[in-house]
Design a protein that fits this description.
By secondary structure, this protein is mainly alpha-helical. It has helices at residues 2-31, 42-58, 63-85, 92-109, 113-127, 129-138, 143-160, 174-198, 204-211, 216-227, 233-258, 260-287, 305-341, 347-355, 362-387, 390-412.
């Protein structure tokens, strides 16, 4: 059994090293035809993989293996010194050869998926040169910085925060507060990337769908402004209502992440309103002519550190306000607060409902979410009319108002249940 395992490891090393050698030959023929600078052929890469495998087995302290790698490095350094005089600076051959040399130890020390994954990464990376060049020309200068901010929020700041309740009169730990910030930021950032890079030259309707995943309010404003310059009010209405349908679905996702018990209650009515909204949007979309116009968004990246800290502060404030209102004014006070908050950014309030610990029932929590979503629709209806024109935005205003009133009504007249405290 041991002999069979060693045979499989050796054959895997040989196969991966040979295939990488073939890929390197194709790479040179494609991008460096006529260039004589090579580490070797596919056979050389095969022998390099075999030598790395055998040298690693010969010495338990890896001294022979290390000496072999040092010898390979010296040989390439001599070649590279000559190549510098010819103004050739690439060290890709050495890097790929070094990876091939490590395939043997990887096959010995790790499960088979590890050398297989390294092989796949090498092949994909060698074939990605054209794609990388296209991305380099397409991506804006600040996008990598923004990605770094996302990593900072999620992989640096979040693990450092304590998961104990250390803030007086606040039922959540700093870790859970920041986790809410990370989740909302990730959803918003994902929608932004989809809108900016995956659907360039997008039409109005697609802008409404994708923009609604991270801010249906901002998308409504952008589309309403666009409506002043086009005559097709059916397409404008379809796009604005589609953004609101995505808002309903977004709330379901957020609820499922932070409080599955509430999500189980709220999923059905929110899905129903999302479906009705999308049917309305689809009907207006089919009524209009073939969409030829595109929409220019400001492409403002929602992932900013200042925005994240402001969101965290609003989240904490909303938890404190919600706790005060529920303690002193009960369910009626919570419904009134939900209606008022709907005319602002509802995400901090919804998260406070999902993560806080209040003396109200699941039914009252999900009723409050519906009321906030409904009043937010009323705000968007006003925005559609204010930033657009009566001629093009009147149907959108009407449908958003109807959806808002219907959503508020659903929150106000839900049947009551036995009070069960909410636990985060």
């Amino acid at each position: 059994m041991i002999a069979e395992t060693e045979l499989i490891r050796l054959l895997m090393t040989v196969a991966f090293a040979f295939l990488i050698g073939l890929e390197m030959k194709k790479y040179r023929l494609t991008y460096h035809a006529g260039d004589a600078e090579v580490i070797g052929t596919a056979r050389t890469y095969t022998f390099l993989g075999v030598i790395g495998y055998l040298f690693y087995l010969l010495d338990a302290h890896a001294l022979v293996y290390t000496a072999g790698f040092a010898g390979f490095t010296v040989l390439y350094a001599l070649l590279y010194a000559r190549r510098l005089g010819e103004r050739h600076y690439s060290i890709l051959g050495y890097v790929v050869g070094s990876v091939v040399y490590t395939l043997g130890p990887l096959a010995v020390r790790f499960p088979f998926w590890m050398p297989a994954l390294v092989f796949v990464i090498v092949i994909f990376t060698l074939n990605a040169r054209s794609w990388i060049n296209d991305v380099t020309q397409t991506i804006s200068g600040g996008e990598l910085e923004t990605l770094g901010k996302m990593v900072l929020l999620s992989a640096v700041i979040l693990p450092l925060l304590p998961d104990q309740k250390v803030i007086p009169h606040l039922p959540l730990s700093p870790y859970k507060i920041w986790l809410a910030v990370v989740v909302i930021s990730a959803i918003s950032y994902g929608g932004y990337l989809a809108q900016r890079y995956f659907f360039p030259g997008k039409g109005l309707f697609l802008t409404g769908i994708i923009g609604g995943t991270y801010s249906s309010t901002a998308t409504t404003v952008v589309l309403a402004k666009k409506a002043r310059r086009i005559e097709d009010r059916s397409l404008v209405t379809a796009s604005i209502v589609a953004a609101t349908s995505m808002m309903y679905l977004r709330l379901i996702v957020v609820a499922a992440v932070f409080n599955f018990a509430v999500a189980a209650h709220v999923a059905l009515p929110l899905t129903a309103f999302a479906s009705v909204s999308f049917v309305i949007a689809a009907a207006y979309y089919r009524r209009g002519p073939a969409p030829k116009s595109t929409v220019e968004t400001d492409d403002t990246n929602p992932l900013e550190l200042g925005t994240a800290f402001v969101f965290a502060a609003l989240f904490v404030v909303m938890i404190a306000v919600t706790q005060f209102v529920t303690q002193h004014y009960g369910s009626a006070g919570l419904k009134a607060l939900s209606f008022v908050v709907g005319f602002t950014d509802i995400d901090p309030f919804v998260l406070s409902l999902l993560t806080g610990k209040y003396s109200v029932t699941h039914q009252e929590i999900y009723a409050a979410i519906l009321i906030a979503a409904g009043s937010n629709n009323l705000l968007k209806a006003l925005y559609a009319l204010w930033f657009g024109s009566w001629k093009t935005s009147a149907p959108a205003f009407a449908w958003l108002s109807i959806l808002g009133i219907a959503t508020i009504a659903a929150g106000l007249f839900l049947p009551t249940v036995v009070a069960v405290p909410i636990h985060p």
